[in-house]
Amino acid sequence: xxxxxxDHNATTPVDPAVLDAMLPTLTEVYGNAxxxxxxxxxxxxxxxxxxQQVASLLGTKPRQxxxxxxxxxxxxxxxxxxxxxxxxxxxxxxxSTIEHPAVLKTxxxxxxxxxxxxxxxxxxxxxxxxxxxxxxxxPETVLVSIMHANNELGTIQPIPEIxxxxxxxxxxxxxxxxxxxxxxxxxxxxxxxxxFALSGHKIYAPKGIGALYVRQGIDLESISYGGKQExxxxxxxxxxxxxxxLGAAAELAESNLATQPAxxxxxxxxxxxxxxxxxxxxxxxxxxxxxxxxxxxxxxDHVEGEAMVIALDLKGFGVSSxxxxxxxxxxxxxxxxxxxxxxxxxxxxxxxxxGKQTDEPAVDALLEALPEIVNRLRILSPSYSx
Length: 386
Hints:
Layout: E1 4-5, H1 16-22, H2 24-27, H3 38-58, E2 65-68, H4 71-85, E3 92-96, H5 101-112, E4 116-120, H6 130-136, E5 141-145, H7 159-168, E6 172-176, H8 188-191, E7 195-199, E8 210-214, H9 240-256, H10 260-278, E9 282-284, E10 295-300, H11 305-314, E11 317-318, H12 334-338, H13 343-347, E12 349-353, H14 360-380
Parallel strand pairs: 1-11, 3-4, 3-5, 5-6, 6-7
Antiparallel strand pairs: 2-8, 7-8, 9-10, 10-12
Helix pairs in contact: 1-9, 3-9, 4-5, 6-7, 10-14, 11-14
């Protein structure tokens, strides 16, 4: 049975070119990049090439890039490091209700430490209104954190406008760019952000490597203790294989930005049109908003999402009923309920996320399989009247 992968927002396969770049660091250039001998310095040189490649993708300088273990650590580093470095008696942070748990749970941790937090609501568009951020600002606001692109909907947030509002108020601004990196341009200097987090395994690098852009001059307290790696911002032996792999993936992503978004956007639109034309009682979440070109989240009335994921898997298709980090959760997606869906509607929604190997035959195969699966599951649903 041929298999088709439509879950690239959860993770991506390692690109062969990335693997080729990474392999020498596992077999030949194995030194500790902090060592001053030749073995160590050869490793350092390769790691710094990776840093330059990541910086190029983001349109910034290599010294502004801090390597991390992934997007979650990058988000934690920016949020905790910024707020904890502020010694004011009262501290306040602003975020949104559709953020990734890496941001939401970090803000909740800060609340336990006495920091006040405001969670901006969004409407059906799945987009944060910059004016809502402005209204939420207080004199004691230390940080604003709004993601660049939503992981479940693909909706792109008005980051330049929100960043400008935060800067006017003297608050730092962080954006989780894990789902936008490599899919749309992410020029951090133009976006106006102070922090930008990304993850390697979302852009065809291995799991376990990520990066945080830190604007020059920003005060950031380390959240790990040990050595002085990464300019004192992240202790621990450098993950040279990961750094090299992320750099190679970033270089590939930058070279593909001229063609991949348009190609994936056309395939995404083909999928949405096909579903709407052949299946009744369905809708696209966040359809009216600007979205990353590879992502669509479609609701199917009277269908249990988890059952549909399983049924599609048995037919050879890998899809998702929500964020991978929330798999197995009893509660419906917090993102989908935040945009106004009922719990039943949220549980009936499926995310399809496309990638490099997705082509028209794959989309057409999915479109051929979906109507029969949806019809069968609806017949089994007690809420369906036909």
